[in-house]
Design brief:
Elements (H helix, E strand, L loop, with lengths): L1 E6 L4 E6 L4 H9 L7 E5 L5 H13 L2 E5 L2 E5 L7 E2 L1 H4 L9 H8 L1 E5 L12 H9 L3 E5 L2 E5 L7 E3 L5 H12 L4 E5 L5 H12 L3 E3 L5 E5 L7 E4 L4 H14 L1 E6 L7 H9 L3 E4 L3 E6 L8 E2 L11 H9 L4 E5 L10 H6 L3 E5 L2 E5 L8 E3 L3 H13 L3 E5 L2 H6 L3 H6 L4 E6 L1
Parallel strand pairs: 2-15, 3-14, 6-7, 10-11, 18-19, 22-23
Antiparallel strand pairs: 1-23, 1-24, 3-5, 4-5, 7-9, 8-9, 11-13, 12-13, 15-17, 16-17, 19-21, 20-21
Helix pairs in contact: 1-2, 1-7, 4-6, 5-6, 6-7, 8-10, 8-12, 10-12
């Protein structure tokens, strides 16, 4: 099992190229199921989660050709309408094959998904929405079985804002009969990126980027070309790493317009941030200042950046309060950060962080994807050696993180045991 060995205390300097967004690439790849034509994608990140979804799609019958970050997929020979447990169990996003298969073929059998243990992420909103569109859905032996001769457009109001739920219902609605209105839709940039691809494939969608999506169903979708949006969470993670370690780094192929809240918090912490059309430069010359925040749906502070900012707060001047409102079990990194010398207490859904002058390296264990990133940031800022175990979590969502950080002066390397 691979681990990361980090010797902290190095200032970071240079350029890092940002990869495509994992959370955009996964639904976009599933959108290939909606057409028998070829969809060409670029800027697809080289991640374990992407490899997993491609295995699922290939098993269903999607033809996939991959060349680095470019993928061509063709759904003209799909012959199996099932996503099995042995593949789905590792990743919750695999539920995203449900809507496209049902809409195009009238049937789907998808295992209830697995993934990070950061809290409840129920699929009931997906099922309720598809049932409202006329599907017959039942759960048996751990599988979702769905059938519909033809999905019918309708108005769907989800009980909660759900990113994958919005994506699943959006894809299903593109081939439904009549008009579908999705109220309380997620507004995340990754949802917008999916919608933009669907429009390029011939879908009729209005309200893109808002919480009310209106879809006029069409008989068929066609092929298209699309570049996956830059990963805002990878971007934010590297920004926090520089803010914690000190230095001067420019992130290329990055989008600042989808990171407003995180950039504001970094400036509040003392970082100097300058931006261009496709780059972000971060400069940090002093100890960061503590920043308090509350996670919420986009365009608020992203839950996927909570752990990274908490690592920054650990060595900041002053105290902070970090409130998590999205997932009930997303403070598992706290005990690991405290092993490095952080001073964090938990009070319900709020973490109270008192900044310390220094962290000291120690063996730590990653518990989920973003917790892994927070431990890397803490290790970069700590004195001595930090050994991060279970980095298979990290590989699910970060494209060669240790290589990118090494390129700007970090002392970090992958070790095999």
């Amino acid at each position: 099992m691979d681990k990361l060995l980090i010797t902290g205390g190095k200032r970071l300097s240079g350029d890092i190229s940002i990869s495509g967004a994992k959370n955009a690439a996964l639904p976009i790849l599933c959108a290939g199921l909606l057409t028998g034509d070829t969809v060409h994608l670029s800027n697809v990140p080289l991640l374990q989660d992407v490899a997993t979804i491609l295995k699922i799609l290939r098993q269903i019958g999607l033809r996939v050709e991959q060349d680095g970050d470019r993928i061509a997929m063709n759904g003209g020979a799909i012959d199996k309408l099932e996503a099995p447990y042995e593949l789905v169990r590792t990743m919750r996003a695999s539920i995203l094959v449900l809507g496209p298969l049902l809409a195009r073929f009238g049937e789907a059998k998808v295992s209830l998904p697995g993934g990070c243990a950061i809290g409840s992420r129920p699929v009931d909103q997906h099922i309720k929405g598809l049932q409202a569109m006329g599907a017959e859905v039942h759960i048996e032996a751990g599988y979702i079985h769905a059938k519909a001769k033809k999905l019918k457009g309708t108005r769907i109001v989800t009980d909660m804002i759900t990113v994958t739920g919005t994506e699943n219902l959006l894809m299903a609605a593109t081939l439904a009969e009549g008009e579908t209105i999705l109220e309380n839709a997620a507004r995340e940039p990754e949802v917008t990126d999916l919608a933009n691809l669907l429009v390029a494939m011939g879908a009729k969608i209005t309200g893109i980027g808002t919480d009310r999506l209106v879809i006029q169903g069409v008989d068929a979708l066609h092929g298209a070309s699309h570049k996956v949006i830059a990963d805002r969470i990878e971007t934010g993670t590297f920004l926090c790493a520089v803010a914690a370690s000190g230095g001067d780094v420019t992130l290329t192929n990055a989008r600042s317009d989808i990171l407003d809240v995180a950039l504001d918090k970094l400036r509040e912490a003392g970082a100097v941030i300058t931006t261009g059309a496709d780059w972000i430069r971060v400069q940090m010359a002093a100890r960061p200042k503590a920043v308090s925040f509350r996670t919420t749906e986009y365009p608020g502070f992203p839950t996927d950046m909570q752990a990274q900012f908490m690592a920054l707060n650990c060595i900041a001047e002053g105290g902070s309060r970090v409130t998590e409102t999205i997932f009930e079990n997303r403070f598992m990194h706290v005990q690991e950060l405290n092993r490095l010398g952080a001073a964090i207490d938990i009070d319900g859904h709020t973490a109270i962080v008192q900044g310390v002058e220094r962290l000291v390296g120690a063996p730590v264990m990653a518990t989920d994807l973003r917790a892994s990133a927070s431990l890397v940031i803490a290790g970069l800022a700590a004195q001595g050696e930090t050994l991060v175990d279970r980095i298979y979590h990290l590989d699910r969502g970060y494209d060669r993180m240790e290589v990118k950080l090494s390129g700007v002066g970090a002392d970090i390397r992958r070790v095999k045991q």
